[in-house]
Amino acid sequence: MDSATSGYIRSNISSDKTIRESFNTFEYKQMKILLEDLTTLFMKKYSFIKTIRLKYLILRFSSKIAEPVASHSKKFETPEVQFNCLGVNTRQTAIVLGNYHDQHLNSQFQNIKFTQNTKHFDALCCNKLITQLNRDGRLPDIRQTTSFKDLHPTAGKVILSGLGKEDAGYDSKNKFCKLKENSRIAAGVGTKVAQDEGHIEVYVEKMNDFSATSEGAHLASYCYQKFKHECDRKIPEVIINSYEDCCLNIKCEPLERDQWLWGRDCAETQNFTRDLASIPTNMMTPEVFTQQAVKTIADIPGLSMNILQEKIIIEKNMNGLVALSKGSCRRPIFLEIEYTGCKCSEEPAPVILIGQGVTSVNTSPVCKSNKAQTHIIGAATVLATMKMIAEQKKPINIRGLIPLCEISNGPCEKEIVEGMDETIVQVSDPRRFNVLAMMDALTYSRDRKPIAIVSLMNSPGLGYSDLRSIASATFCNNESLWETFKNAARHTGDLLHRYPLDAQYDNYIKGDCGHWKNASNVDPLSTDARILSKFVGDKIPWIHMELQYVNYNPHNIPYLRLDQIPGRPTRTITEGILQMLTKDRKK
To answer: Which runs of consecutive H residues, i.e. helices, occur in 425-465?
Structure first.
């Protein structure tokens, strides 16, 4: 064999691997059999060198056939690397733009309405965007997207997301700002499409509202994959930036920048709640939650925490926590987190947040149909809200109370539990532990003389609810406080629905051996709230929210992934507390 022929064989055989990697499994096997037969016949008459050249020519000029390439179980493929003149890998970046859609003008593409930034981008790429839309014949409506490639060197893909009607205002039926909600939906849907396709950097324009757009994009990119191997993760981690950060020479106003950062902080607060609530039951105990709380507040100025161990809990007659945890080896813990943002000569009364923190339940049959880790969603929301307000350095005083316990062989039926204020509760249903878990914290907060109390709880086994995951069931004894949080829900999109808190429920919760029963089968939501109201009284404004349905029933929110815990209504609670601060300033 001469040197020229051997060099020819080496150079061409090295390209066989590249060719075969693009083939599919079935056709490659068929081609391999055919090649072996041809080679066998050819070698009988011709030399070895000509046979090698025949093999190469068959692989080179055949249709694209492929040998299977072993790969991990990733559900996304990272786009190929391609750099522009600025050194930016454009194949891994995506831009999410918005367009308005009117159902009456669906086929009239001459009336396409772009947002201001979408018009700017279309002008940069010489009207390629509108040309592609006219060619494809489909304009995305709300919750819909259309993707385009290679429109501009800055991005590998441009995703056009529908914003609905341009004049969308307040939705009087569902009672929320539709303009902001459409911005969250458009940004969230576009971000999920870019993330599912493997893009690791996404630029989102401001849509209708910069703050709402930032919320929707950051909430949509969340996926709890902490304990998954990198090759088993469904979607890649993505970096969300504003459209103005892209290399398109666009100036961003300082106010718009603040709105983007505020929306990002609100979304990250909700994602922090989702992180804590998603921890598996076997890894979440009262001690673990306490450690998470200590790590969270360690570097935030103004936050302090007092940890009450079992001995102090017994001394303070917090018998509800003691009764629930008596069958578990994990001892109860009571956390008191304090934030002092208003340092005046006369320290104002605080707002108190109370979150249920039952880390796991091992005895109740009803928990087979409910996720055990869901019972700390109230505690996680309290910690996330206080973290957010402390980081923003808001001038308000807040205290967070988190009773933590693990239930294993809890109280039996007809047992008697005496609260801190000597109120006697009779255990009529051992599976309904929520009242026993919250009653001591409510009594403890009443002694602090707060301006308002916000309690968060999720009850197991309450059965079917007409609301499903649409809105959080809410109970309130003060009209002004209710209006504050109702207005907050209009801005955030996490709706609240008020349930009755009337004295007529007293007939269903009266105990035989004590003052009250811990549960009733008649309207469980309202009767549970009515029992808790006995530990608050009528003088202190109090609002109570039930979080079971909005977090663990299937939802229809486009900017939240279906297989993830939503973490609602964290943003509504944060917004409501800030609106309380605004009202106090006006007074």
So the answer is: 434-446
As a whole number of angstroms, the distance between CA 448 and CA 568 comes to 27
Nearest to 567 by CA among 464, 479, 458, 462: 458
Amino acid at 170: Y
Distance of CA 188 to the CA centre of its chain: 11
Buried b (16+ CB within 10 A) or exposed e, 76-93: eeebeeeeeeeebebbbb
Nearest to 430 by CA among 449, 446, 454, 414: 414
CA torsion 14→17→22→28, rounded to 10°?
A: 120
pLDDT digits (tens, 9 = 90+) for 100-122: 987 665 454 556 789 988 998 99
Rounded to whole angstroms, the Cα distance separating 129 from 96 reads: 13
**Cβ contact 423:534 at 8 Å:** yes
Q: Are 497 and 472 in contact (CB under 8 A)?
A: yes
Rounded to 5 degrees, φ, ψ at 304 are -140, 160
Exposure of 226 by Cβ count < 10 A (0-12 exposed, 13-18 middle, 19+ buried)?
exposed
Read off the amino acid at residue 192. K
Q: What are phi and psi of 233, to 5 degrees?
A: -75, 140
* Nearest in space to 446 (alpha carbons), one of 342, 534, 382, 530: 534
User: DSSP alpha helices (H): ranges in 155-199?
Assistant: 178-196
Of 331, 522, 505, 502, give the one whose Cα is nearest residue 432.
Answer: 522
Query: What is the β-pairing status of strands 333-340 and 303-308?
Result: antiparallel
CA distances in angstroms from 578 to 179, 256, 261, listed in the order given: 21, 20, 17
Q: Please name which of 107, 117, 121 lies closest in space to residue 163, comparing C-alpha atoms.
A: 117
3-class SS of residue 403: strand
Task: Work out whether the CA dihedral 492, 497, 502, 505 comes out positive or negative.
Answer: negative
Q: Which residue has the tokens 């605080």?
A: 350
User: What's the pLDDT tens digit per position in 241-292?
Assistant: 888 777 566 667 788 889 999 999 999 999 999 999 999 888 899 999 999 9
Rounded to 5°, the CA angle 374-376-379 comes to 145
Q: Has this prediction a pTM greater than 0.85?
A: no
